[in-house]
Amino acid sequence: MKILYVALKETLPGSHGGAVHVTEVAQQLTRRGHQLVVVVQRRADQPARETRDGYTIVRLAARSNFLLFRLQAPTRALIDEFRPDAVMERYYNFSGAGVHAAARAKIPSLLEVNAPMLDPPGAKKHRADKLLLGQMTRMARAQAELAKRIVTPLAATVPFPELRDKVREIPWGANVEMFDRTRLDPAQLETLRLELNPTNKRVVVFLGSFRPWHGVREFATVAETIARARDDILFLMLGAGPLLQETRARAARANLQTKIILPGATPYPRVPYYLALATMGVAPFNPAAHPPLRVGFYWSPLKVHEYMAMQLPVVTINVAGLNQIARHEQEGLLYPENDLPALRAAILRLADDAALAERLGAAGRARVVKHFSWQRHAELLEKVLRECMA
Prior knowledge:
This protein is α/β, with parallel strands linked by helices. The protein has helices spanning about 15-30, 70-80, 95-105, 125-130, 135-145, 185-195, 215-230, 245-255, 270-275, 300-310, 340-350, 355-370, 375-390, and strands at about 1-5, 35-40, 50, 55-60, 85-90, 110, 150, 165-170, 200-205, 235-240, 260-265, 280-285, 315, 330-335. The longest helix has 18 residues, at about 355-370.
């Protein structure tokens, strides 16, 4: 197939979740023999077009993320130039340029939804929608109605019951080639180990955005209590975000900078090397801190998939969705959300039982390769695209 993949809120290349998702989908569909043009937002220092990994990136200049819907005309021009068999668009409330242009060109479109299309009462976007007299709801509904199919990790992200027959649930994945211990450069890995962990302590890793709903504060609290009592455990927190400086200051006040390591934003190709030093991966989500999660745990978290791909047992909360990726006592240890003593107990159990950690980690690698790889995601996505074509 020839596919126009519209993701106008994203910029490529990038290392955050949305950019990784778009890149992986484009790469895997290209590997499966399809021709892709990926349409993203242009930064001032970037070329308008380039080819990467066998697919074409077209960058469109946007005045504001709130005006992305105005890019329908250049998107339609790309349809006329490329003549795709289908258009796939990554949903953003103020976009829809892809599905609208596809409808005018009379070709099928697929909407990729990775978060609630409409936020629940109390959320900022819900208040904004009220101020705009429901304009955001109308824009979301129009995109869902125009699309032939909708793919999402959780069907509840689509708030229009009459359109649910279009919805196909597909989880995100991990790059099981990049996140593979056997493919890492031993020299680079040893250099990093000597830098961060020369005494071979057990390493507990947190990877992700430093935002409240990622459980940064909860993880830091548990890390402090363990670090004060144990000299054989090291905590490694990878990533950046609004809470990074707060977390660094907190570790400094506790005089634990050598036990709680915070490197900040990490280049994506380096992440597997950091994970390879770890004994376990922790994803201490706090859904109560993020109102959109009231619709259900719609995330198909990259960090959990990547932990598993690197043969790390996962410690995360026991909620629907997550507990079907890493299962309790099978690929990880799950605990009730916001139960910090239970989180502490799970970390210590894995730190003190190497055989259990190894067994859960090996099972996680096998599960993610079979069910949650980007290759598997692309295979399922291809089937839905063929449904659109039919």
